[in-house]
Protein 1
Amino acid sequence: MTAHASVLPSGAFAAEVETLYRDGIVGMKGAFSRSWVDDMREDMMTAFWSAIQRPGGAIGRGPRRWYVETHPEDFRGFVDLITHPFVRGMAEAVCGPEYHIVEIGFDTPFQGAKNQPWHRDFPSPAETYDGHRITSLAFNLTGVDVTPDMGPFEIAPGTQWQDGRTWKHEMFPPVEIWPDFASKGVRKFPQMGDISCRSALTIHRGTAHASPISRPVLVLGVDAPGAGHAALHDMMVTQAFYDALPEDMRGHLVCRVVEALVPIVQKHDIEGLVMGTE
């Protein structure tokens, strides 16, 4: 099933949006330098070792796999990321000129992580399962060159349009239809500097991780106005950081401006991922 042609933009990023609407994911090779990614990976792992020591800091997404939501200021490259032409272009083309940046964090599996159940990251809204319109995006950047033993991300293209209202939590399809997703499944092997843009409603999973090298991947969440995912997060920045942002980007951040940053206690705990499948 394809998206209604009326929702697809013309002009810049039209081809990328068409791919996104067809497959549920699209990517750009070499968006950032490897040295930039080295800094990003260092910042992710620094944030991980801090978060894992406090309650609610690192949320389990299966055995030996965690998700950590972070402050924009934890990443030296945050402004580079949100002003990158691919990020800005896709966010505006899909979510509109008043798009909202609602989340930044990262997922990291370590050696021993298991296959996750097939899932989507939140229930599908009527605009998507009925209207065939994508109202939120997840941008992902790998911190390492992904190899087959690193538990690569696996996605079932085209499944972003499935209804899912009868599934557990409207996110977890029943085991009986997992073979349908496995038959479509494509494992992704991005390299440092690549960036992907996907609908978090496209059915996907992390796979078993045998490598002694962890595979941290950055997540930037973007909403169309009214999509409502900001309620699942608590982005905050200091006044000095906010004032230093490019003026045209400040309005895109859904955040609190605070005198001092405090540790994030995560609100979006995907209970069905706590246990691995195999």
Note: The chain has one domain: 14-264.
Protein 2
Amino acid sequence: MPNELDLADDEIAPLIGRLTAECSLFRGIDPAALGDVLRLAGRRLRLDPGEDLVVEGESAEAIYFVESGGFEVRKRSEQGAGAADGGHRIGHMGPGTLVGEVALLDRGTRSATVRALEASVVLVLRVRDLEPQAPTPPHPAVQMQLNLAHELAQKIRHSTSSAVRHLEEALHEERKRVEMGRFMSRVLIGTCLYMFALVLMQPLKTLVPDSTAFSVVVLVGFAFGLWMNIRTSMFPASAYGFTLAHWRPALREALLFSLPFLALIVGLKWVLLRNSPAFEGQRLFDFYRHTGLGTGGTFLVVLAYALFVPVQEMVARSGIQSSLMMFLRPRHRVTMSVFMSALLFSATHLHTSFEFAALVFPMGLFWGWLYARHPTLVGVVFSHLLIGIWAVFVVSFPFF
């Protein structure tokens, strides 16, 4: 706590000289009258480094004159940023400066915190000791001046908060621009590496006809880039869908809106069975038997698929859609982020076949829409697993 001391008689005259010379608030006041004020209301405070002279939000009951030392002025953030270290540093005060002089106009609350940076000494004048005890109400003109002073004090406090808010918004926008630049750089690098990988893997297709292994390699590469992006991002992991917030409605909607796709898959295969000679002899529900893997092998494939789907959704939703939703303008943010994430993710399947990539695109739009409603990976991963397992392992739809 600051150490408060009374003023000695031999300290009054030097203080009068400093106040009238260094501070415009005291200029023009008769030195004898100022001496009487100091004797009546003046106290001296000694503060150690780190001690607060005034605290934001507390009642404004005194004004201070810095005799020696130094202080920093800190303002709490209205957006939560900077709270870990006590707010934003917005100014510095040294010897000869006044602190909290608005209290003379309006006994409101402090608009900022003033903290000692070093051992400091200040003169304190409490407002209640400075206010005259008038026996009669002031003259109307004087009362109007007092009312105007109160309004000006409120505007000063409001302007301080407004200035900090605008600075925070500008800082946030600048950070978003930096983050957008990093995101675009990684997307371009990832796209280039993907194109090179396609060329390098072409000779392997003659040796390994199944392109699933290539898809795994590509997605693992994208997932690694995503992990690096989130790890160094200015945004929390929850901004990229790694959160359990609203997971219950996300699961409910994922189940509800996935049911029509399950019915559509069955309906499409039923149409193919009735109209395409290529499907003669096949069943509506094959349960993956046509692969010849057996129960144990099918279970392992399902398990691998269940591990693979979250990686796919991490890339599409966390890496692409979430980033675009942060950076695009509000008017078309959701539509464009869903469309672009679906398009980019569909393009990563072109090495499999054009038909398969075309099928991936509408599903990407659907899952992107689900994610936009509830930005958590829980719902889209569940829907992706449900539709994928139904299509591949239950109905055995031929194009999946």
Note: Strands lie at 3-6, 42-47, 52-54, 62-68, 71-75, 88-93, 98-99, 113-116, 120-126.
Protein 3
Amino acid sequence: MAGFDKRVNSYEEAMAGIESGMTVAAGGFGLCGIPENLIAEIKRLGVKDLTVISNNCGVDGFGLGLLLEDKQISRIYASYVGENALFEQQMLNDEIEVILTPQGTLAEKMRAGGAGIPAFYTATGYGTPIGEGKEVREFNGRPHILEEAFHADFAIIKGWKADRYGNVVYRDTAQNFNPLAATCGRITVVEVEEIVEPGELKPDQIHTPGIYVDRIIQGSFEKRIEKRTVREA
């Protein structure tokens, strides 16, 4: 990787510098648009005591669920537990700290971190356990709680296409939390299905500008379906 060329040749190089105790923001919703190979590399490296920011925690044996097997995650900010028995078990046994965060608030905390906004007020969560211990102010006669922005050591992202400058395009619903998570990482790593030459991506179609991206790698993906539903013959 040199200059504007953000490409790396291995997943080991892509995740170089990650250490135990760091915070990782991960894109994806369920299993849609998850950076599955970057997660697998974190699993291989064996780093521990991670704080993870993600909509959910994958499923048993896949996605972020892989990191639960060796208890690599000590804290997670997520909007729901999902269909993950190990995640549920570790949460109920107090083996992992789960900070449930409303989905819109989770997204805005990522975006705010990338935009340089330290905190913001939202009415969501006021009067519930979500708002306990948080500063409250009233706007237009309605109470709001103060939410602090997210800042991650690493952001791991799944894109569809990118150029070697790190400009990224997501496909359909696989966009989800990815462009938001990409902004809040000190080091942002993106894995994509295809790397194209600069100029092949139309400027008005780029979702994540290369200024946010530090490393990019082309991979192959299983794209597992979380819950397959078919019509009986």
Note: The mean pLDDT is 95.
